[in-house]
Design brief:
Blueprint (H helix, E strand, L loop, with lengths): L1 H28 L8 H18 L1 H17 L1
Helix pairs in contact: 1-2
């Protein structure tokens, strides 16, 4: 169970880093980085990612636990 938690935390961090860099790319491609720094777009997208994860945490835990519960049922 510890290893699954470690994998989940690693996945959470990797997707958070992707959200940060994707937000920077959106800022550069939309040329809004001329107005604001591209890191601000990265932080905004990271906060949006964290907000969506927090708002949907019950569904995420259910989706994460379903394969484990299916294995124990057999």
């Amino acid at each position: 169970m510890f290893i699954l938690g470690l994998i989940g935390f690693l996945f959470f961090g990797a997707i958070g880093y992707f959200a940060y860099t994707f937000g920077q790319c959106v800022g550069v491609f939309s040329r809004l980085d001329k107005i604001m720094d591209k890191r601000i777009f990265g932080v905004i997208s990271l906060f949006l990612y964290l907000y969506f994860v927090y708002m949907n945490q019950a569904m995420l835990v259910d989706a994460f636990m379903k394969p484990i519960n299916d294995l124990s049922a057999t």
